[in-house]
């Protein structure tokens, strides 16, 4: 194996460890960023539960949720990028986790002219012999620790808030109930007036007051129309 092939193979092992270190860092950071952004989403979801506004609740919910998830991922990417391990850091980690006593990191830190020397060649040969056949993935596993469960807390809160009615829905329900009660009251009042008009009409018939009978017929007809047009509006019913 030539020197270039040996260095390429050594770098391949270190690059694999490097990628896994970065991915592990991203996964760890993502738990924190997602927790933070989801808590903001929970606050935003809670707003329509107490204050009614014109925007459709589903649009409000999905906009904040998708935006929160996107911001959480982007923050994790940026954080990982600015705190990522360097290739030399990965080589040092390989040495430590496989107990290679700095053979890999020392070899990769040599300058090209130092690599051509006897010491460099011997160090490269020893590093290749030690690293031959090792499984980088076995010592660089991708783990989801207990901190990865942090986003579940705001996620559960968001789920609980979704089940609660919005302030706008509460207002609509209250208005519907009030309207229904008004309809019953208006109906009861008109029924009472119709009964009184009927009694007055009968009295007018006994007295022979035909004009009064016609007036009470019109009144009964108007009360029937009022019942048919009853929409639960007390002010409108009183005016009619």
Name a few traits of the molecule.
mainly alpha; single chain; 240 residues
Number of helices: 11
Q: Supply Rg.
A: 40 Å
Largest sheet: none
Helix residue percentage: over 70%
Total number of strands: 0
Overall mean pLDDT stands at 79
Task: Tell me the fraction of residues in β-strands, as a range.
Answer: under 5%
End-to-end Cα distance, whole Å, is 104 Å
- Sketch the topology as an H/E string, one letter per element: HHHHHHHHHHH
**What class do helices, strands and sheet pairing give?**
mainly alpha
Net shape: rod-shaped
Low-confidence stretches: none
3D architecture notes:
It is built from eleven helices and no strands. The protein has 240 residues and is mainly alpha-helical. The model has no long low-confidence stretch (mean pLDDT 79).
Summarize the structure.
The chain has 240 residues and is mainly alpha-helical. The protein has helices spanning 3-50, 57-82, 87-97, 103-108, 112-116, 118-131, 136-139, 152-163, 167-207, 210-228, 234-239.
């Amino acid at each position: 194996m030539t020197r270039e092939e040996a260095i390429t193979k050594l770098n391949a092992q270190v690059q694999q460890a490097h990628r896994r270190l970065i991915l592990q860092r991203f996964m760890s950071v993502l738990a924190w960023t997602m927790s933070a952004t989801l808590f903001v989403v929970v606050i935003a979801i809670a707003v329509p539960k107490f204050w009614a506004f014109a925007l459709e609740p589903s649009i409000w919910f999905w906009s904040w949720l998708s935006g929160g998830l996107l911001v959480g991922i982007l923050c994790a990417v940026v954080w990982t990028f600015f705190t990522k391990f360097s290739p030399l850091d990965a080589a040092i980690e390989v040495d430590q986790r496989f107990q290679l006593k700095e053979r890999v990191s020392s070899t990769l830190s040599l300058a090209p002219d130092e690599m051509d020397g006897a010491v460099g060649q011997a160090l490269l040969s020893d590093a290749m012999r030690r690293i031959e056949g090792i499984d980088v993935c076995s010592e660089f596993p991708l783990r989801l620790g207990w901190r990865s469960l942090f986003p579940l807390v705001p996620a559960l809160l968001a789920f609980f808030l979704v089940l609660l009615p919005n302030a706008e829905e509460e207002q609509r329900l209250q208005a519907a109930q009030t309207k229904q009660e008004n309809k019953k009251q208006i109906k009861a009042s008109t029924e009472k007036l119709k009964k009184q008009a009927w009694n007055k009409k009968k009295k007018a018939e006994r007295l022979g007051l035909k004009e009064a009978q016609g007036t009470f017929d019109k009144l009964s007809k108007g009360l029937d129309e009022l019942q048919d047009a009853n929409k639960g509006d007390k002010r409108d019913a009183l005016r009619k």
